[in-house]
Design goal:
- The protein has nine helices and nine strands.
- It is of the alpha/beta class.
- It folds into two domains: 136 residues, TPP-binding domain (Rossmann fold, 3-Layer(aba) Sandwich), CATH 3.40.50.1220; 85 residues, SIR2/SIRT2 'Small Domain' (2-Layer Sandwich).
- The strands form two sheets. A six-stranded parallel beta sheet has the order 3-2-1-7-8-9, sandwiched between helices. Strands 5-4-6 form a three-stranded antiparallel beta sheet, with no helix packed on it.
- The longest helix is centred in the first third of the chain and has 12 residues.
- It is elongated and about 55 Å long.
- Keywords: Hydrolase, Metal-binding, NAD, Transferase, Zinc.
Length: 238
């Protein structure tokens, strides 16, 4: 059990696997099973290749995020917030399940954006994904911006794109305000998300890692747990 009064949380794909959303680097991960899929998440490949965009839109249409429900791990973090102990919920996930579970949007810092919105790469217009998916159902395979004709892309951060500075600043502030930093379901290999562990460690804050596989920060962590997230988190905050 974690009894600290102020806890900052970082979540990765591992918290959503119990909701039916595969991770990227795990044994059954998207990139493990299909390394070529990484092209869909590279901004240069996406912009340069219509074929990559067509495959990316097929992936979005079939994304399990549309039907997935939050699991006990997500709900445990809602309980942590209810207890008044959550300084911030920083997530690498783009599925929106934290908000769907009931986490306050102002406490959820989506470092890698959200699949629930679409950006035009030319005019920077942002619209709901729900406004674009029907165009795919109607036969378009690479829908363009209806205002300027530019390339449309989910409002997620691809390799080669910069994170939103305001979101990153909020994530750092939440980490600095906490007594304990808890990393859940993340390989801690992607920066700057993983760098939040460094922020916590430099300040002498305990680092707790809950992840199925080893991470580069295990040796520096105060506690490392390999148990299932959906059963472990509720016990940590009860």
């Amino acid at each position: 059990m974690i009894d600290a009064a102020r806890i900052a949380v970082l979540t990765g794909a591992g918290i959503s696997t119990a909701s039916g959303i595969p991770d990227f680097r795990g044994p059954q991960g998207l990139w493990t099973k299909n390394p070529h899929a990484q092209a869909m998440f590279d901004i240069d490949e996406y912009v340069a290749s219509r074929e990559v965009r067509v495959e990316a839109w097929k992936f979005r249409v079939a994304a399990p995020a549309w039907t997935a429900e939050p699991n006990a791990g997500h709900l445990a973090l809602v309980e942590l917030e209810r207890q008044g102990r959550l300084t911030g919920l920083v997530t690498q996930n783009i599925d929106g399940l934290h908000q769907k579970a009931g986490s306050a949007p102002e406490l959820v810092h989506e470092l890698h954006g959200s699949v629930r919105y679409v950006d035009c790469l030319s005019c920077e217009r942002r619209i709901p994904m729900a406004d674009v998916l029907p165009r795919l159902d109607a036969g378009e395979d690479d829908p363009a911006c209806e205002l300027c004709g530019g390339i449309l892309k989910s409002a997620t951060v691809s390799f080669g794109q910069s994170l939103d500075p305001a979101v990153l600043d909020a994530a750092v502030a939440a980490t600095e305000a906490a007594e304990v930093f808890l990393a859940i379901g993340t390989s801690l290999q992607v920066y700057p998300a993983a760098g939040l562990c460094d922020v916590a460690l430099r300040a002498g804050k305990p680092l707790v890692i809950l992840n199925a596989q080893e991470t580069p920060y295990d040796e520096e962590a105060t506690t490392v747990l390999r148990t299932p997230i959906e059963t472990t988190l509720p016990a940590l905050f009860s």
